[in-house]
Write a structure and sequence with these properties.
There is one protein chain. This protein has 252 residues and is of the alpha/beta class. It folds into 2 domains: 76 residues, Ribosomal Protein L25, Chain P (Beta Barrel), CATH 2.40.240.20; 163 residues, SPOUT methyltransferase, trefoil knot domain (Alpha/beta knot, 3-Layer(aba) Sandwich). The longest helix is centred in the last third of the chain and has 16 residues. The chain is elongated and about 60 Å long. The mean pLDDT is 92. The protein binds S-adenosyl-L-homocysteine.
Length: 252
């Protein structure tokens, strides 16, 4: 079983940790409930703990108390599941559970970070869901074997984000998928070859306006198409991460 444990002991990978005597950590609160009630953890079970920052540990359940698990750490190691490509997903906030879905799938597909944007046609100004989105990111990472929990940033308006800096901040390139048309990804793959960090913007149910696509282009984003059919926003978000991961990351 995999459990989230944000505070693993020690520094970087320590393969010989067990030689230096037993090191234990405690699993509390929600993660304790998940281990006990959902996974039916038993003393002596093997566990994999991940810290959300890229490290994991092999351990054994040494004890189950009324409110916590005690896990004896056997070995600490790095993670091998992170993509060679760092994808920053910039999704317009979607209504209801569609945003939850996009976050869950984007984490499974290996994004490094998610920054929700409020665009001109965003139908919700929903920012209260941040904690929920972060929990979804953790659960998706836990499920798919990642040790890194992609951070979900607080939402910002599209305009602020693109006007503020010279985005893509820290990225080698950015792509905005626009239903109004743009370059094909195959053509762009030449120009983005070798990129290690790519930002990907996808619009809301009502789409991006031409002004928004123009502003992103002004800031160096490539305007790209996903083909002749108009996809639902959540389909487009998931597909675009998959295609970018395939072309430039570790899915190919
Ligand atoms: N309501 C709009 C469609 C919005 S689709 C309309 O009818 O025109 C939601 C988002 O998904 C878009 O803003 C875009 O980012 C992405 N998207 C959907 N289909 C696309 C396509 N064929 N090419 C590029 N982006 C697309």
């Amino acid at each position: 079983m995999r459990l989230y444990c944000p505070h693993l002991p020690g520094g970087p990978a320590q393969p010989g940790l067990a030689d230096r005597g037993p090191v234990s950590v405690e699993i509390l609160a929600e993660e304790f409930g998940y281990a006990k009630n959902v996974l039916r953890a038993r003393t002596g079970d093997g566990v994999l703990l991940f810290d959300g920052k890229g490290r994991q540990a092999r351990g054994v359940i040494a004890g189950i108390l009324p409110d916590r698990l005690v896990v004896r750490i056997v070995e600490i190691a790095g993670s091998m599941k992170e993509s060679t490509l760092s994808i920053l997903l910039l999704p317009a906030i979607l209504k209801g559970q569609k945003m939850d879905f996009v976050i869950q799938k984007a984490v499974e597909l290996g994004v490094a970070r998610i920054k929700p944007l409020i665009t001109g046609r965003t139908e919700v100004g929903e920012t209260r869901k941040l904690d929920r989105w972060r929990k979804i990111s953790m659960e998706a990472a836990r499920q798919c074997g990642r040790c890194l929990v992609p951070p979900v940033d607080g939402p910002e308006t599209f305009r602020r984000y693109f006007e503020a800096g010279p985005p893509p901040s820290g990225a080698d390139g950015g792509i905005i998928f626009w239903e109004g048309g743009g370059a094909g990804l195959k053509a762009l793959s030449e120009r983005l070859r070798g990129a290690k960090r790519i930002a990907v913007a996808v619009g809301p149910e009502g789409g991006f306006s031409a002004e928004e696509a123009g502003l992103a282009a002004e800031k160096g984003f490539y305007v790209a198409t996903l083909g002749p059919r108009i996809l639902r926003a959540e389909t487009a978000a998931i597909l675009s991460v998959g295609l970018v991961q395939f072309l430039f990351g570790d899915m190919g």
